[in-house]
Amino acid sequence: MLDIIPVILGIVLLIKGQFKIGNRYVAKTTGRMIGGLLILPSLITFCGSFMVGLTSYEITPDGEITFDLNNPIFTTLIMVQLVLLGVALVISAYLVWKSPTTPPAPTQSGAGLPPNAPWNIPNPFNTPAAPYNVPMTAAPPTAQAPSIMSVDEAAAYLRVTPQDILALIDGGKLPAARMGGNNYRIARSAIDDYVNGTL
């Protein structure tokens, strides 16, 4: 029973991903990480028990296979599982605590969509969202738009979040020069070509 609840909860979190607990909004990747952490102790114990079971069995004269459940290694595996489960719960609690207390802003992500395709992203936390089926377009050219932009400037230019720009760069859909870490420089002409579908 001790390992069934974390495993079921972990499977649900791996499938669902994002969730809200208390006043914390846990993102999809963090939720899946927590799900994996909750499953890991039982998986390690199961594999360890299987390996120990292969080495600590007896075949009786009438052909029955019996396992010695009083083997101290099984007790050690249960203690290891308890320790790993405790560590997983502490890490999970930290990840939930580190999550934001405000719902994520709705995004107009064009990542993974063909250029000029209408976006239609469901709003997971029932917050007011921008109107649906609005095509992603670049902001009108202005004197303030530099020819070489940072991620934040490109996000403001396309009216999307910086995470959307990083997703386009990571997906190979928007060429950019890496300056170190997530610090990129993007040509305005490359953004315009992406939006117009000529990239």
Summarize the structure.
The protein has about 200 residues and is mainly alpha-helical. About 45% of the residues lie in helices and about 10% in strands.
Helical segment count: 6
Category by helix and strand content: mainly alpha
**What's the total count of β strands?**
7
Q: What is the H-and-E element order? A: HEEHEEHEHHEEH
- The rounded distance between the terminal residues' Cα atoms is 55 Å
Strand count, sense and barrel status of the largest sheet are: 3 strands, antiparallel
- Counted up, domains total 2
Radius of gyration: 25 Å
Spans where pLDDT lies below 50 across 5 or more residues: 108-121, 126-134
Shape: elongated
Strand proportion:
5-15%
Strand order of the largest sheet: 5-7-6
Helical coverage, percent range:
40-55%
Mean pLDDT equals 76
How is this fold's topology laid out?
Layout: H1 4-16, E1 19-21, E2 24-26, H2 28-55, E3 57-59, E4 65-67, H3 72-98, E5 148-149, H4 151-158, H5 162-170, E6 177-180, E7 183-187, H6 188-196
Antiparallel strand pairs: 1-2, 3-4, 5-7, 6-7
